[in-house]
Amino acid sequence: MLINSALYDDGRIVAEPGLDGLSEALQSQSGFVWIALKDPTDDELGRLERELNLPALAVEDARKGHQRPKLEEYGDMLFAAMHLIEAGPEGEGELEVGEVHVFVGPRFVVSVRHRSAQGFLGVRGRAEREPELLRQGPGFVFYALMDAVVDRYFPHMDAIEAELEKLESTMFQPRQDRQAVVQQLFGLKQRLATLRHAVTPLLEVSAKLHGGRVPVVCKAMQDYFRDVYDHLLRIQASLDAARETIIAATQVNLTLVTIDESLVTKRLAAWAAIFAASTALAGIWGMNFEGMPELKWAWGYPMALAVIALVSGALYWRFRRLKWL
Question: Of 201, 226, 229, 208, which is closest to residue 69 (Cα–Cα)?
Fold first, then answer.
């Protein structure tokens, strides 16, 4: 589906050519064209391929989707794939992954969005408010799209860090549901992995766009792409720190589970010892041998109960001092 199309000249929009007749529009006027598509049909991609002479292999990637973030050069054209991360259904705490594929040529930019509700109208509005940068051509539009994609990673990273801090603050509370904590930690680890799959390859992409050999279409925007690279480095560092924290928190939680089980075992062993002593004494006096000195004594039964209570009390006091009870 066509979302927007515009022909820009000297930083200003001069026409909205649509998908048909793009080649004629570019031949008759100077400037460049910016086309935005969402979940396009094969027919729409085919028309763009013919009008703009797009690389067939890149078009095939854009048609199929499910690409790893990457940057490919086809002569004076670029094809980039980036992941769009957004929150899943409310309450599930999962991340959903969409994609945006960007074709960049000397006189065009085509963005193809798949499986994502996040649009780029804000990016277009920002670019049109800065005509001095829009005059830089397709390279600036490519930067603006990449910058928007990367900036949308930060809220997800902040949310993960906030949840992790909350878990850490409650982890040592008594009567904590350890299984629920481990499940939450595992969920956070999955979300980190989703972000990592988007960020790490994009670091390689942005590194190719500043310093050293840079594609011609992006040469004037090297400083801006360096800024995107710095943002990705910050996210990568946060991902690494959060991952280490999750590993440590999981180990601590499992240790706490072992400690809790040990305390329960100690309590059971202590009560078992108390009842074992009482049972042993009761068994001795319950044998009813004729020769037992206290058998016919009027105070024999109370004395037996007193001895059992005294032994049980002594064991209970001892286990309390050992903090088994």
Answer: 201
